[in-house]
Amino acid sequence: MEYVQTQLGERKPGIAETPYTTNVASFGIAVPGSTVSYIGVSGLNLPFPAVSCPTPFLQVHRQGQVNRASGAELAQKQSTETISDRAIARSALITLAKEIVRETLGSCLLDMRTELKEDPEDVGHVTVCLVLIVRGSVEEIYELDRTLQARLIDRIPERDFPFIGVLYHFE
Amino acid sequence: MNPSEFLDVADRLKSSEHEGDRRTAISRSYFAFYNLCVASLRERGVTFKSPIKGDVHGELLEYFNRCERRFAGSLRDLRLARNNADYDMAATVQNSASELYHKKARDAFNQFSALTSQQLENIARCITHVVYTPRRQDS
Q: Which stretches of chain A sit within 8 Å of chain B by CB?
């Protein structure tokens, strides 16, 4: 899988010029104090905003409007009317999932990054993977993961639940 | 073969000094749980409809997501770990990770095995009402 990353407002060669990508490129997600990038998946033309730092807020700039809301609030407003609406809702869900991870793992979580994982044996099945760098014993992380799974079940909508997963790496 | 044998293999390899063994432990852990679920559901009349064999993994995930979500989370994350172990040669798989995923798979395996016949029937009945169409992120 090829990833193409671009800074906010920029385009680099390699991003497919499709209405899908153009739609998403037309809005930006700005996280205070952080670098924000979009990831496009070659062949799928599926851009996902990758938010790479802890943040309680998202600012979504779209068609001249500025909304400010928590990930949970944005997730509740999930809309399926247009592709760009879905992309916004998914970015909010990723933020929500990251909030849940942080509040569950606490100081055991050293770092977290977002990756798109396409199933090598099920082409086209893409999962947003939260890669968690953790510190702790296997037993500790196992118990925290049980809590995390229960919270994700409670708070991530059914239609998105299969597509947001976590992968652990120990320090 | 009882899929629990895969868990035994994983148990022997999970703390090995060789990374290939640890990766295999994660892979076997996933397939122990996956095969248990598929076989048990087939025994109760569930038919997997995916035309592509690999897609059964996604189909099972969707069924659990609709009918018994606690297993959906386990299946999804074990699958991610298995794909990472079997395909991502750039990654490093430590003892702790293989031990964690073996434990996670064993826990899911035991929970699924502990379902009563009636609970399994209920899941199978629920699945028959799910209209499965392969879903993609862009749908």
A: 20, 44-46, 83, 117, 119-122, 124-127, 129, 138, 141-142, 145, 149, 152-153, 158, 161-163, 165-170
| Segment (H or E) for B17 | none
pLDDT digits (tens, 9 = 90+) for A104-127: 999 999 999 999 998 888 777 889
Strand partners, A4: A40
Counting Cα atoms < 13 Å in the Cβ hemisphere of A30 gives 13
CATH 3.40.50 describes domain B4-128: no
Q: Is the pTM value of this prediction over 0.90?
A: no
3-state secondary structure of A157: coil
Query: Residues of chain A with pLDDT > 90: what percent?
Result: 39
Position A116: which residue type?
Answer: L
Taking the domains of chain B in order of start, what are their residue ranges?
Answer: 4-128
Both structure tokens of A35 = 């670098």
Task: Give residue-wise pLDDT tens across range B84-98.
Answer: 999 999 999 999 999
Residues of chain A with C-beta less than 8 angstroms from the C-beta of B58: 119, 122, 125, 162
